[in-house]
Design brief:
By secondary structure, the protein is of the alpha+beta class. The protein has six helices and 23 strands. Strands 1, 3, 18, 19, 20, 21 and 22 form a seven-stranded antiparallel sheet that branches. A hairpin with a 6-residue loop joins strand 15 and strand 16. Residues about 1-45 have low confidence and may be disordered.
Length: about 375
């Protein structure tokens, strides 16, 4: 019993000594005393904020530009694929009317000509059989003329005793013989044909020379008027209802040409039996469409009214950018503050985009130029 009391006394004494010697307990800190209070941060180190601060000087340096979001009753309905071609009177193709040889050439590549201007002269060439036949006919015509002259002269010398009908017949024979001889004598000159331009424009590239032999049906020249162009597009079944009577058309080049408005010429009611499409023909303005050329592929934007004419919120297409795979718009809310707004784009044309969803209101000032710089600042702040 005494031994047990001694053990308990020793344990208590040891506990008292440890209590005196050890320091009092302090606050537990993780990771070397890091502070976990304040604003939360993303795992990538980017602050979970929806705004970018940019001083006025930087805005001027980055050429930041803005535009207002607005409601509109028009938007792009469809994008068609078309081809530029010459309109009526915009192209003239000159073909050889008869086999022959070029004896005169007035056309020059790139030269501006007017309708009716002579471009070349072609002389018809004959083979050996044709030449022999023509020589024989010419000789026969000359012989007939001499015989008719002699017969008429004889009857004139005895006109007082000759029958009146014989004199008249001889006169008619002589007149016909002279006409036939004149035709055959001038046939060599008549074998020359002048080739004229059917339209006014510029002579396109060709490769001809004086003395060159050409065949009937060959194309000699092509005269192009670049101010008369049209666009032909195929409208398939899924887009037929989108070409409305009040639709507006805009042609956009695939080689960097600026988009230009186009006027509807005809929307054919005939369906192509091969692809079940209907042909849409547009005409380009003479000055605005001068950058386009025949044969060029283009996009045709069809812009029409919304169902029932209901306005929809639109922003410039250049205002929409991509942030981590999601479409966003930067809104200029204060002089040096820009807010990020996630949006869902809808129908789009070359200039405007409909916003189906997003925290964008009418007259919000959205950034159209400088979005790349704002996005870079946001991702690195």
């Amino acid at each position: 019993m005494k031994t047990k009391h001694k053990i308990l006394a020793a344990t208590a004494a040891a506990g008292l000594v440890l209590t005196v010697l050890l320091p009092p307990p302090g606050l537990v800190q993780a990771h070397g005393g890091e502070d976990h209070g304040g604003t939360a941060k993303a795992s990538t180190g980017v602050a979970l904020s929806d705004e970018v601060l940019l001083p006025k000087e930087s805005q001027f340096l980055f050429q930041v530009r803005t535009n207002l979001a607005a409601f509109s009753t028009t938007y792009s309905r469809a994008t068609l694929y078309g081809t530029v071609s010459a309109a009526a009177g915009g192209e003239g193709r000159i073909v050889v009317p008869q086999t022959g040889r070029i004896v005169s050439l007035a056309a020059q590549v790139g030269k501006t000509v007017r309708a009716g201007q002579t471009l070349a002269v072609i002389e018809q060439t004959l083979d050996a059989t044709q030449q022999i036949g023509l020589s024989t006919e010419r000789a026969n015509a000359q012989a007939e003329l001499r015989a008719a002259q002699q017969d008429y002269a004889r009857l004139q010398s005895i006109a007082d005793i000759a029958a009146r009908k014989d004199v008249v017949a001889a006169e008619l024979r002589l007149r016909q013989a002279r006409q036939n001889a004149s035709i055959y004598n001038g046939q060599a000159q008549q074998r020359r044909v002048s080739i004229t331009s059917p339209v006014s424009g510029t002579v396109d590239v060709f490769n001809l020379a004086v003395g060159q032999q050409v065949n009937q049906g060959d194309e000699l020249f092509r005269v192009i008027n670049p101010g008369k162009l049209r666009v032909e597009a195929q409208v398939f079944a899924q887009d037929l209802d989108k070409v409305t009577p009040g639709a507006v058309f805009r042609v956009e080049g695939l080689q960097g040409q600026a988009g230009v408005p186009a006027r509807l010429v005809v929307f054919s009611n005939v369906v192509n039996p091969v692809n079940q499409a209907r042909q849409l023909v547009l005409e380009l303005d003479a000055q605005q469409g001068s950058a386009y050329r025949a044969g060029q592929a283009v996009n045709v934007q069809v812009v029409g009214q919304t169902g029932g004419g209901k306005p929809q919120l639109v922003v410039p297409t250049s205002a929409i950018t991509d942030l981590n795979g999601k479409p966003v718009v930067f809104v200029h809310t204060e002089p040096e503050r820009f807010k990020i707004r996630y949006v869902q784009p809808g129908a789009v044309n070359g200039q405007q985009t409909v916003l189906v969803q997003g925290e964008i209101n009418e007259n919000d000032r959205v950034v159209t130029t400088g979005t790349y710089q704002l996005k870079s600042i946001y991702l690195n702040q």
